[in-house]
Write a structure and sequence with these properties.
By secondary structure, this protein is α/β, with parallel strands linked by helices. The protein has 9 helices and 14 strands. It has 2 domains: about 140 residues, NAD(P)-binding Rossmann-like Domain (Rossmann fold, 3-Layer(aba) Sandwich); about 190 residues, Dihydrodipicolinate Reductase, domain 2, CATH 3.30.360.10. Helix content is about 30%, strand content about 25%. The mean pLDDT is about 95.
Length: about 325
């Protein structure tokens, strides 16, 4: 692999920082690392592989000479800089929702549809974190028989709402422990000792945008426009790593043992049958690593072609930063 020039757009945010961490862990041959942020962040220094690197202000002209740009900014900023990144000749791997459903932009989970990355026209989109985690869990089964539909419930950590989500849960727990009234800023209601069954803005059909991502993005990644997904997204008082319950229906019956073998052999997935005396993973188990853990695989009692499972994954790593870096590595290794 040749030495690479890599920029991280939004390097000071939670996902941007995690991208830098993963780049260092994966030990890619980096010639130049360019962390980019706002004018307010410019001049600050960060450590990368033990060396100080200065954050620069993101401008249209700063992408010249880059091979790859990892995007960790909101959709509006992603659209703002995408033309300049493309014009520079770099490949833009974007973690926002800006380009996910654009028919000209591949939406990629490397283990599931990595070949799509090579069809890019300068931009590749990272899927939603829950879409990545759920599809990693079921992709082995999909190789045995087409998945016709999924009923999904996500249990999403507060870090999915950024640093503000983490701070809110911490402050509310402290307030409750002190017998004080918790302050509510980030979430619609108290999250400490509670769950909130609505994430993101309304979609217009009594579902939220977050809930519709699972179907819309799943169809694109699996190349199956007829895939049906019914999803409920729940915010839970967990700091990090999302958990997802999935009940799927396959076109042909897949027995449970075959399903377990398929899951266990799928790259990037860990089958849990007996881990510390239990048959399931928890968010804490999967935090700060890249594997999606899958357990509680069982026959659906309402459909003979149905399978139910439980999975957990770190939404900041495999659900965002690591998936983007894995796309970058896939392209770089091919070159």
């Amino acid at each position: 692999m040749k030495k690479l020039n890599i920029a991280v757009l939004g390097a000071t945010g939670a996902v941007g920082q995690e991208m830098l961490k993963v780049l260092a862990e994966y030990d890619l041959p980096i010639e130049k690392l360019l962390p980019l942020g706002s004018a307010r962040s410019a001049g600050r220094k960060i450590l990368f592989k033990g060396k100080e690197v200065e954050i620069q202000e993101a401008t249209d002209g700063c992408f010249k000479g880059m091979d790859f740009v990892l995007g960790a900014v909101e959709g509006d900023m992603s659209k703002r800089f995408a033309p300049a990144i493309k014009a520079s000749g770099a490949v833009y791997i974007d973690n926002s929702s800006a380009f996910r459903l654009d028919p000209e932009v591949p939406l990629v989970v490397p283990e599931v549809n990595g070949a799509d990355a090579f069809e890019n026209k300068g931009i590749i989109a990272n899927p939603n974190c829950c879409t990545i985690i759920a599809l990693m869990a079921v992709a082995g089964i999909e190789k045995l028989s087409r998945i016709e539909k999924m009923v999904v419930c996500t249990y999403q950590a507060v870090s999915g709402a950024g640093q503000a989500g983490i701070a809110e849960l911490e402050s509310q727990m402290k307030a409750l422990a002190a017998g004080e009234k918790p302050e509510i800023k980030t979430f619609a209601t108290q999250i400490a000792l509670n769950v909130i069954p609505f994430i993101d803005a309304p979609y217009g059909n009594d579902y939220s945008k977050e809930e519709m991502k699972m179907q819309n993005e799943g169809r694109k990644i699996l190349h199956d426009p007829d895939l049906k997904v019914n999803c409920t997204c729940v915010r839970v008082p967990v700091m990090r790593s999302h958990s997802i319950a999935v009940t799927l229906r396959t076109a042909e019956k897949v027995d449970i043992e075959s399903a377990k073998k398929a899951i266990a052999s799928f790259p990037g997935v860990r089958l849990i049958e007996d881990y510390e005396g239990r048959c399931y993973p928890t968010p804490i188990d999967t935090t700060d690593q890249d594997l999606v853990w899958v357990g509680r695989i069982r026959q659906d009692l309402t459909d003979e072609n149905g399978i139910t499972l439980w999975c957990c994954g770190d939404q900041i790593r495999k659900g965002a930063a690591s998936n983007a870096v894995q796309i970058l590595r896939l392209l770089a290794e091919k070159d």
